[in-house]
Specification:
The protein has 8 helices and 9 strands. The protein has a domain of about 140 residues. A hairpin with a 2-residue loop joins strand 7 and strand 8. Helix content is about 25%, strand content about 30%. With about 210 residues, it is of the alpha+beta class.
């Protein structure tokens, strides 16, 4: 499923988006672009760290994840091997299971209505040019250097409907078990109880919404 913005977004989602906008269309950026936004924490690109916006409005739960691609697939350049291409496909498959990734309890009765997962790497083709070289050592070192300077991100947006939203008191995230490179997740959440923030990790993967 792909996330398609509705014509009338929920009030809570609109407020959260205004507080912490995460661009789903800034999946790829270079160091010079990063430097031009160095004063904005949302534009920072730090391996191991990711950000999540969460809004609960009545029966509607929205989540917006933004992470360096390294945290989820282990690299950020275009895939050069079959193994790297497989890693991308595995990440896409895992990100397509938000109920497990965000530890949403079954008692909440949530269903995924819409989701959109995006990264420049998802459309990158396997670089078969490397297989055509008789001498792999002849590969230009400057090209490798350019690739290491490229920052690719992954953005995901989910909208869920929950029949029992009161059961969403505690979420035990499975992101850290699924993605070993992820060490810290900064969360901003908004609900009828107000706005709050939390910093989660593999040692502390639980988010309390109430």
């Amino acid at each position: 499923m792909r996330f398609i913005p509705t014509a009338r977004p929920t009030a809570l989602a609109a407020v959260l988006a205004a507080l912490l906008p995460l661009s789903l269309h800034a999946a790829e950026h270079k160091h010079d672009e990063h430097a031009s936004h160095e004063n904005s924490s949302l534009d920072s690109h730090e391996h191991g760290h990711a950000k999540l916006n969460l809004a609960l409005d009545g029966n509607t739960l929205e989540l917006e994840l933004h992470s360096p691609a390294f945290n989820l697939i282990g690299f950020e350049h275009a895939p050069r091997t079959a193994e790297q291409h497989t890693a991308i496909e595995q990440a896409k498959a895992a990100l397509s299971q938000p109920l497990a990734l965000f530890g949403i309890p079954e008692t909440a009765g949530c269903r995924v209505d819409e989701q959109h997962i995006e990264s420049a790497l998802f459309s990158a083709k396997h670089d078969d040019d490397h297989d055509d070289h008789d001498d792999h050592d002849d590969h230009d070192d400057s090209e490798h250097a350019a690739e290491t300077e490229t920052h690719n991100d992954i953005a995901a947006h989910y909208r869920l409907t929950c029949s029992q939203p009161a059961a969403l008191e505690t979420l035990r995230f499975g992101l850290f078990e699924q993605f070993a490179q992820l060490s810290k997740l900064d969360v901003q959440h908004l609900s009828e109880h107000g706005q709050s923030g939390a910093s989660l990790s593999a040692k502390q993967p639980t988010l309390h919404l109430h």
